[in-house]
Amino acid sequence: MRLLILSFLLVWTFNFSQAQDIYTLNKSKEFASYLFKSGQYELAAVEYERLLFMEKDNDSLKIALVDSYFQNGQLNKAVKRTESLYPSLNDFSVPMAELYLQMLILGKKFESFDQNSDNLPIDQQKRSVYDFHREIMAGNWKKVETKIPQLSNNNHPSISGLIRLSKKAESFKPKKPWAAVLMSAVLPGSGKFYTGDFKDGIFSLLVVGGTAFQSYRGFNKDGASSTVGWVFAGLSTGFYAGNLYGSGKAAQVYNQNYWLEIEKDAEAIIRASY
Question: Which residues contact 231 (CB under 8 A, 6 or more apart)?
C-alpha cells in the first residue's frame, strides 16, 4: 500500500513539474511576442534566444528571433544568425526563406542573393518580385525596365510605386560638370545656377565680381604698382578658380543626391511591402 502511494506521489509530482514547465514556456513566448509587437526588438531578441535554447528546433522561434534582429536594424547580425540556424538551404521553411531574401535585398548582399535565391523554397511569383527588388536596390535600372512587363499582373503592394520610381529614374537628365564649369568661366556663379544652387551662385558672382572690381579700382588709381590692385587681383583669381571647381563639383553632387533620393524612396517602398 505504501509503495502504491509513493508511486502515485512520484507520478503526480512529475506531471505537475511538466505542467509548470509548459506553463512557464508558454508565458515566456507570450512575453517575447509582447516585446516584439511593442517595438522592443532588442529585448525580444534576448528572450527568443533564451527560448531557442529550450526549443532549438522550433522554426517559429527561429523566425521571430531573426526578425527581431532585423527590425532592430541589426541586419548583418540577422543574416549571420539565419545562416547559423540553417546550415543548409534545404532546412529553410518558406517564411524563413522569404525573410532571408528580404534581408539580403535591403542589406545589398547581392552576391549571396544570386547564389541562394534559386535554391530556396519560394514560388515563382514571389521570386520574380524579389528579383525585381534586387535590381532596383542594385541600381540596375536597365534591367528593371526589362522586368516590368513580367510584373504587369502581379498585385504585390510595392510594384506600382517602384514602377513610378523607375520612370523617374529613366527620365533623369544628369547635370554635366563640364557644362557647369564652362558656364561659370563665362559668368561666375552661373554654373551653380545650372545645378539649382542659386544661393551659392549669387555668392560666387558677388565675391568674384566684387574683388575683381576692387582690383580694377586699385590699378585704375595707382597703376601697375598698386598694392590694393594686386591683393584684390590675387583674391579675385583665387575665388574665380574656386568658382570653377565648385561649379563642376556642384553638378556631381546634384547627380549623386538625385540617385540617393531615388535609392531612399525605393528602399522605403520595398521595406514597407515586407
Answer: 215, 218
The proportion of the chain whose per-residue pLDDT surpasses 90, expressed as a percent, equals 66
How far is residue 60 from each of residues 28, 57, 200, 271, measured CA to CA in Å?
14, 9, 56, 21
CA pair distance 77, 63, nearest whole angstrom: 13
97 and 68 Cβ atoms separated by less than 8 Å: no
Task: List the one residue out of 232, 245, 105 whose CA is nearest residue 178.
Answer: 245
**Residue 42: which of 51, 32, 52 has the closest Cα?**
32
Q: What is the pLDDT of residue 17?
A: 44
Which residue, chain included where needed, has cell 580694377?
216
pTM: predicted TM-score of the whole model, two decimal places: 0.75
